[in-house]
Amino acid sequence: MAIQDLLWVENLTKYFPIERGLLRRNVGQVKAVEGVSFVLKEGETLGLVGESGCGKSTLARVILRLLPPTDGSIFFEGINILTLKSGEMQRLRKRLQIIFQDPYGSLNPRHTIESIVGEPLSIHKLAKGKERKDCIVELLRLVGLEESSLVRYPHEFSGGQRQRIGIARALATRPKFIVADEPVSSLDVSIAAQIINLLKDLQERLKLSYLFISHDLRAVKHISDRVAVMYLGKIVELAKKEEIYALPKHPYTKALLEAIPTLDPVIKRRRFILSGDLPDPADPPPGCPFHPRCKEVKSHCKEIKPSLREISLDHLVACHGVV
């Protein structure tokens, strides 16, 4: 683990038990995240893409220790956070924050904006009295909102403004690492672009590192330095943004990129549309998890699981057909 590495995730796994019957017997497991490994450097944005249900949000919550992992290691600034006791984790938690997907459901409708943004300051005992209020005003201005917002309630704001409030709340503890979990998926295109530009500006000004989760590959391309493609709980491709978009190697990555809307009729005719649905994570297919939907499938793909391997400098792919 290099000095500039902020977050190091190794073989992270999360299974959810399936319980049935009056005695709640364990009859299986949902393999939400399986063997995920990556490194996030200081000041970097790693985009995490994939279909709904592939394990992106679960992975984020395990990294933040909002969910306990089944296996694996998580190091943040050289500290193994899985070994920390609750009090130690509480002190470290202000360094790791999250921006939630839903700007409507993530803000308490009974609290004023001053209370919502100031809550982390109170929990972590970072400021009180006039200093606390001044800090909240500064946070609101940082995300483009006026001081008059303090006494208002979430329902008085638009979706984009509510997401700015959520960002201000995440910044209150002066974090180093922020998980942005689908932060623009519920916003109009023009508003989403403003939020992404705001996140980029804040990253430069405050030296932040992001794990940016989205199924919108255009948004991911705009904000990310590297991109990880996730399928059925596993990372199947990981590379610099330029390589992922120009030279994708995994068939699933190619299919995702071909699904980006375009007006070019030539590209439309060449497109490969994924057939079928994401397999059940409680009963994943043998071999390569993508093989039931892959147009390049070979016989051994149905039997042998491909490992995530480096095919060129910093470009990793889990596919038997890539050499």
Helical run tally: 10
Shape: globular
Oligomer: single chain
How many independent structural domains? 2
**β content, as a range?**
15-25%
Order of helices and strands: EEEHEEHEHHHEHEHEEHHHEE
- Overall pLDDT level: 91
Please report the first level of CATH classification, the CATH class of the largest domain: Alpha Beta
Unreliable segments of 5+ consecutive residues: none
**Class by SSE composition:** alpha/beta
Based on the structure given, which CATH architecture of the largest domain is correct?
Answer: 3-Layer(aba) Sandwich
Kindly state the number of beta strands.
Answer: 12
Biggest sheet strand order reads 6-7-8-3-9-10-12-11
CATH topology of the largest domain: Rossmann fold
Give the CATH superfamily of the largest domain: P-loop containing nucleotide triphosphate hydrolases
In short:
With 323 residues, the protein is α/β, with parallel strands linked by helices. It contains ten helices and twelve strands.
